[in-house]
Design goal:
single chain, three-stranded antiparallel beta sheet, alpha+beta, about 350 residues
Length: about 350
């Protein structure tokens, strides 16, 4: 993004002001919607023992210095997930937050080193019910944002999306097979463990060749990039007018979803979904995994991958793992990129247009 002047100069601020005022209105409307359903708004702290343990996310590290000048490393969180789940373990049943989050090594039209995550959780008596309700929440939040902005459709890079929150539901294996011909489930054992040889063979048969050092997860990620780029070709996505419905992509492989609960009917898949609009990833939701031992093992594996790839790793938050052992097993949660939602609703073309004070370049 080329900038002719800093964001705080009057001319640039006036160019952005309409987007920012609409941002406030959307936030007010979403806040009111959550409160009408008896959600409690929380403010999770940004300084954490662990910023999160996803292999390919990069955090900002800082130091806590106590009055005796003893130092302790802390991190700005990449997501409020760990803190929110601790609050669910503490007894909250319905909570939401507009949390400032921080991710290093990310900057572009859809990425900022600091942005706002809209995250919410439902704990109840039935995991499947909470999970499906969280999915329905996403559609409603999209509809609210579009209604507030007055948009009859959203746009991004020439793609048009419906403004009513309607979504097309596809399972990940189904979408991959429809777009690439690869039958993903045949490359995963019934114990949930991926079979690299099987995926390499299917990948080769589909006309691709995997590098010698690529893992099952690497190839899967490449396939998902293709799905995300081409999902407009899936059956049912386009209306008769050529406008896209949002895509709800469900049932990710359990091996790629360490914090999500495995499906009861098929342990190869997890209760994890993502929402896409106009080619933009908008939300990521889970039926939450409360198996503390399984989550610890999965996070350690993520950090081993991070160490192998980037030569660094982040601590595991032992308090978070302990909290999982008492978190209600019937919990579902979702994280939505609030700034991206505002961009789609307002027609902004760069995330800095919808941030009140963008991070200095």
């Amino acid at each position: 993004m080329t900038q002719s002047s800093p964001w705080w100069t009057p001319d640039r601020h006036m160019d952005r002001r309409a987007f920012l005022l609409t941002r406030n209105l959307i936030k007010d409307a979403i806040r009111a919607w959550f409160r009408a359903q008896d959600f409690i708004e929380v403010e999770p702290g940004c300084l954490q023992v662990s910023p999160g343990n996803e292999a390919h996310l990069h955090a900002f590290q800082t130091r806590l210095i106590d009055p005796e000048r003893t130092e302790k490393p802390l991190y700005l969180h990449t997501s409020p997930e760990f803190a929110c789940k601790k609050l669910i373990s503490a007894g909250e049943q319905k909570l939401f937050t507009f949390a400032p989050v921080f991710r290093n090594c990310e900057r572009g039209p859809l990425h900022s080193p600091e942005f706002t995550m809209l995250e919410w959780y439902r704990a109840g008596d039935d995991t499947n019910e909470q999970y499906s309700t969280i999915q329905n929440d996403c559609s409603e939040l999209i509809r609210i944002a579009m209604e507030v902005s007055g948009a009859d459709h959203c746009t991004w890079k020439g793609r048009k999306g419906l403004a009513d929150g309607e979504t097309v539901h596809r399972d990940v294996p189904e979408a991959i097979e429809e777009l690439t011909g690869i039958k993903l489930l045949e490359t995963i054992g019934f114990d949930g463990k991926p079979r690299l040889d099987a995926l390499c063979a299917a990948y080769h048969e589909a006309g691709h060749r995997a590098a010698a050092d690529e893992s099952w997860g690497d190839i899967f990620s490449t396939l998902m990039v293709e799905v995300e780029a081409r999902y407009g070709e899936l059956k049912g996505i386009l209306t008769g007018d050529g406008i896209e419905r949002a895509l709800l992509l469900d049932a990710y492989p359990a091996a790629m979803s360490p914090l999500a609960r495995p499906q009861n009917q098929d342990a190869r898949l997890a209760m994890r979904f993502e929402i896409f609009m106009c080619g933009i990833e908008l939300a990521n939701g889970f039926g939450e995994n409360s198996d503390a031992d399984a989550v610890r093992a999965a996070l350690r594996a993520e950090m081993a991958e991070k160490q192998k790839t980037y030569g660094e790793e982040y601590p595991i938050d032992d308090d978070f793992i302990d909290a999982l052992s008492i978190m209600p097993s019937k919990t579902a949660g979702c994280a939505m990129g609030f700034d991206r939602l505002v961009m789609l609703a307002t027609g902004a073309t760069h995330i800095e247009q919808v941030l009140w004070t963008p991070v200095p370049r």
